[in-house]
């Protein structure tokens, strides 16, 4: 729904105000309307239309739930290092399928709820196709990352899990289609084949590399040389496979691998207790632990990871969901459970998230009484790729920027040149902080933040004129106001979440 004037999201006095504007505009266009009964009817008709429009906006649902990150990401690898959770992933949402991706960034969080990033973590890989970067592996006093860049796996290194990373071998630059410094080496004229690296370090400190098509090999102590003896892990399901996950729990090695793709994405596993390279046994029960849940409308749980909270037996399954089709996916997390004999139980897939995994002191965001925007993007119908039962429509109501769910967002109409969003607290009150999570933050945003006590007179209180690659964009201040208004001056015209304290 797009209204040329401001758009409200609740049935309230503000809607009556905008209904009055519609009515007065109607009178200016139709001055011949003088009969009082006609005027009253027209006024009520205009207000009714506004109220019905508002009710329609309220009724719009969020089919994407509580995604982990306020952005489109896939192929996530998550770990906790020294009390901070790090998320390395493919950045989606650049609207060109596999022909493009976002730049390398690392999201971090202290509690697993509030996530942020600042700048690009692997500068030389910016502008390349950057996929599936793996976890940051601590070895040799440094941190190693294994992303797939332009379709080939590379090793990168940094002194910090936050980066900046640079290529671990050769000059810190990328040559297309690939260079001699790829992680895998080819013994023939053909290019070295392989994507989606996963690295596991066993209790004896030996490192192993797993990648596409169930391949695995020992990784030498330098963390960049892959042994030439490559194993193919035997699994009961054949066919294409990617997104390997490998971990060890209570002496049992677990190898997880994907089946299918799009809405048909699934995860299966095998396990064993002899070696990271096998042999592995097929579980006696169900070896497919994640598949589309039609009842909950969760489609294609695919490439992600399993991580453990250090010092606990708490394991979590991280997966991408088909989302908005193609490379417009988001990532979700559910608890992973085991039977007494170590078998993985099928994951109870939900889009509700797992909440905070560490307690930190933080203020809860203010509840916003009303929200208004310069426009709202027309609803988006998402087409299925392989499963006709997939039926999903995305809406972009202003209220979605304040619902505490990273799966929903407000988006302005594409032809909107003013592009603003207003948060109404309902009364004048003290405000000290604003955190805005823009849509497609890895491309950068500039904005102006304004405050008002009456909704008519506005004062600039934050923002910046240069486009910055970060999320959230934070403003600290001390002011009394009822309204905050953000004007997006550069970057994608949308907000995932806006927290005000």
From TrEMBL:
Domain (F5/8 type C) ranges: 365-501
TM ranges: 38-59
Keywords: Glycosidase, Hydrolase, Membrane, Transmembrane, Transmembrane helix
Coiled-coil ranges (or none): none
GO term, biological process aspect, one: carbohydrate metabolic process
PROSITE patterns: FA58C_3
Annotated positions for site Important for catalytic activity, responsible for pKa modulation of the active site Glu and correct orientation of both the proton donor and substrate: 196
Residue positions of the active site: 75 (proton acceptor), 242 (proton donor)
Pathway(s): Glycan metabolism; L-arabinan degradation
GO molecular function terms attached to this record: hydrolase activity, hydrolyzing O-glycosyl compounds
Family named by the database record: Belongs to the glycosyl hydrolase 43 family.
Protein's recorded name: F5/8 type C domain-containing protein
């Amino acid at each position: 729904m797009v209204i040329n004037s401001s758009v409200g999201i609740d049935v309230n006095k503000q809607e009556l105000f905008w209904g009055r504007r519609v009515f007065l505009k109607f009178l200016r266009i139709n001055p011949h309307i003088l009969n009082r009964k006609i005027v009253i009817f027209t006024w009520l008709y205009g207000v009714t239309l506004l109220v019905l429009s508002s009710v329609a906006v309220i009724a719009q649902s969020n089919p994407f739930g509580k995604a982990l990150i306020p952005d489109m990401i896939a192929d996530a690898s998550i770990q906790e290092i020294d009390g901070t959770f790090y998320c390395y992933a493919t950045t989606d949402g650049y609207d060109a399928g596999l022909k493009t991706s976002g730049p390398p960034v690392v999201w971090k969080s202290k509690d697993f709820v509030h996530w942020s990033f600042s700048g690009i973590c692997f500068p030389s890989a910016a502008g390349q196709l950057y996929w599936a970067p793996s976890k940051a592996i601590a070895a040799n006093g440094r941190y190693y990352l294994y992303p797939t860049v332009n379709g080939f796996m590379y090793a990168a290194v940094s002194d910090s899990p936050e980066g900046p990373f640079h290529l671990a071998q050769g000059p810190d630059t990328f040559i297309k289609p690939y260079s001699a410094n790829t992680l895998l080496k080819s013994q023939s004229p053909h290019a070295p084949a392989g994507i989606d690296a996963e690295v596991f370090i066993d209790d004896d400190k030996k490192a192993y590399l797993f990648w596409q098509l169930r391949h695995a090999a020992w990784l030498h102590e330098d963390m960049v040389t892959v042994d030439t003896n490559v194993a193919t892990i035997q699994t009961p399901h054949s066919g294409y496979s990617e997104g390997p996950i490998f971990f060890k729990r209570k002496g049992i090695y677990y190898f997880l691998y994907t089946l299918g793709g799009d809405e048909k994405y699934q995860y299966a596993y095998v396990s064993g207790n002899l070696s990271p390279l096998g042999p592995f046994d097929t579980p006696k029960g169900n070896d497919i632990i994640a598949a589309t849940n039609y009842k909950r409308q969760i489609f294609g749980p695919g490439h992600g990871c399993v991580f453990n909270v250090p010092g606990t037996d708490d394991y979590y399954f991280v997966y991408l969901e088909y989302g908005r089709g193609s490379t417009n996916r988001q990532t979700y997390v559910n608890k992973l459970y085991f039977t007494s004999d170590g078998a993985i139980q099928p994951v109870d897939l939900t889009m509700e998230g797992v909440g905070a995994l560490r307690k930190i002191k933080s203020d809860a965001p203010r509840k916003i009484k009303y929200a208004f925007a310069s426009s709202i993007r027309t609803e988006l119908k998402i087409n299925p790729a392989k499963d006709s039962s997939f039926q999903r429509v995305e809406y972009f109501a202003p209220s979605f920027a304040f619902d505490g769910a990273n799966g929903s967002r407000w988006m302005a109409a594409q032809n909107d040149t003013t592009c603003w969003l207003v948060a109404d607290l309902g009364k004048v009150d003290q405000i000290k902080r604003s955190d805005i999570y823009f849509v497609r933050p890895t491309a950068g945003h500039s904005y102006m933040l304004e405050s008002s006590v009456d909704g008519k007179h506005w004062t600039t209180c934050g923002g910046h004129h240069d486009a910055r690659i970060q999320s959230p964009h934070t403003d600290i201040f001390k002011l009394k106001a009822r309204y905050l208004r953000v004007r997006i001056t550069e970057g994608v015209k949308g907000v995932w979440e806006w927290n005000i304290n």
